[in-house]
User: Which sequence fits this backbone?
């Protein structure tokens, strides 16, 4: 393997490590938005099982890049 | 009361039901492992092709793409698995290795999210020869995989088509979560909508305007792409250019979000190839790819959106318009630029001087 290929491989490995570490850390920090599995009607006021606790609502808002007081329940599909 | 509203067609059930049968813990871990492992495997396979031309550039681009794909893991979106399956299948076909595995991957991806993989499949159908045969085999495999889910849906819910349609309508209403317009409650933020409608709706927030305009722009570009693919002889070089163009353009006509843009990993071999050739086209390819990877990356957007939320700006209409433009325009517009750039190179390489010379020498 040439030096250039090895360098390219290292960069790819670096990206993979960042992806796994950051992804796992953020997923554990905001375990809410597994929306493909669990979600509810947008007309339901309680809307989502995952937005009922303050902590999770806060984390989910940060992850989604939303403002802190949504006008109505939100759902990414 | 919590109810489940599926936004996916029943063709996806054959893949999803096994996860639903498992307890939550193992299903969660398995899904995450498939999402992360699949994307890493797909990136390594695509890098192995780009590395034949420019290994460091390919590693840099794909490493950056991977490091900016956290939303796929955080949200557990299907797109991570579908993009990975599609990239693995493309690698199998263009490297001519593990063809049955590639067909299975493509068929599963097509069954789960046809809007992500459909145009890539269309390339193989239009390219002709052995690729067309593969595309038709994939279609058969997709039908076979989808049939149990469709039959089950018809049995338990005979009106599933109307129900699915009403689900989509419920989310698409003005201000709804998949409404691309500025009033949408879910089209912005870190998982923003990136189809062209999002840009046009800023000027006129009316689906009777932004939908036809988006369709017209995309139809023109896709028509050129389809005609070139039909009329040119397939080669690995042209295949990667065609796939680079369609990976970007396929995001624009219908509903897609930022995490769907991970399909741009298919553009890396074309970029590496053009960069290795040198010249202005190579430099432009790297510039376009770098801009596209940054503007569809999770971390740059997390930083920018975090910064915007902490800015103390005057509440003037102009300020609001600038803020909207900064958040809505970059991703769809860079996809449009990238699609046009690779389409231009694809047309040049298919009907330019080199094609005519090679055609003359081979007696065409």
Assistant:
């Amino acid at each position: 393997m040439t030096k250039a290929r090895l360098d390219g491989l290292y960069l790819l490995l670096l990206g993979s490590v960042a992806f796994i570490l950051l992804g796992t850390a953020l997923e554990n920090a905001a375990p809410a938005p597994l929306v493909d599995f669990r979600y509810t009607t947008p007309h339901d006021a309680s809307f989502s099982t995952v937005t009922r606790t303050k902590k999770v609502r806060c984390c989910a808002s940060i992850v989604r890049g939303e403002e802190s007081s949504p006008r109505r329940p939100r759902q990414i599909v | 009361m919590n109810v489940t509203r599926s936004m996916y067609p029943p063709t996806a059930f054959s893949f999803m039901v096994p996860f639903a049968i498992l307890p939550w813990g193992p299903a969660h871990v398995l899904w995450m492992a498939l999402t992360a492992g699949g994307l890493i495997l797909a990136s390594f396979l695509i890098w192995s092709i780009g590395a034949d031309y420019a290994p460091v550039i390919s590693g840099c681009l794909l490493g950056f793409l991977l490091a900016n794909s956290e939303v796929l893991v955080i949200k557990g979106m299907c797109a991570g698995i579908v993009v990975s399956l599609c990239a693995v299948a493309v690698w199998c076909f263009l490297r001519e290795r593990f063809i049955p595995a590639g067909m299975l991957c493509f068929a599963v991806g097509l069954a789960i999210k046809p809007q992500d993989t459909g145009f890539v499949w269309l390339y193989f159908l239009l390219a002709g020869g052995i690729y067309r045969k593969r595309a038709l085999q994939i279609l058969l495999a997709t039908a076979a995989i989808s049939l149990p889910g469709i039959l089950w849906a018809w049995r338990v819910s005979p009106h599933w088509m109307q129900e699915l349609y009403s689900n989509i309508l419920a989310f698409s209403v003005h201000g709804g979560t998949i409404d691309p317009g500025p009033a949408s409650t879910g089209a912005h933020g870190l998982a923003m909508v990136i189809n062209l409608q999002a840009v046009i709706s800023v000027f006129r927030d009316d689906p009777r305007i932004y939908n036809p305009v988006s369709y017209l722009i995309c139809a023109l570009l896709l028509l050129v792409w389809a005609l070139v693919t039909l009329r040119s002889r397939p080669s690995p070089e042209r295949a990667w250019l065609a796939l680079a163009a369609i990976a970007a353009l396929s995001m624009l006509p219908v509903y897609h979000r930022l995490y769907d843009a991970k399909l741009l990993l298919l553009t890396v071999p074309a970029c590496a190839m053009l960069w290795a050739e040198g010249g202005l086209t190579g430099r432009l390819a790297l510039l376009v790819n770098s801009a596209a990877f940054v503007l569809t990356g999770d971390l740059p957007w997390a930083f920018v959106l975090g910064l915007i939320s902490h800015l103390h700006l005057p509440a003037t209409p102009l300020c609001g318009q600038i803020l909207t433009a900064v958040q809505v325009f970059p991703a769809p517009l860079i996809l449009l630029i990238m699609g046009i750039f690779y389409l231009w190179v694809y047309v040049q390489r298919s009907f330019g001087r080199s094609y005519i010379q090679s055609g003359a020498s081979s007696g065409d």
Remarks:
- Residues 33-77 of chain A have pLDDT under 50 and may be disordered.
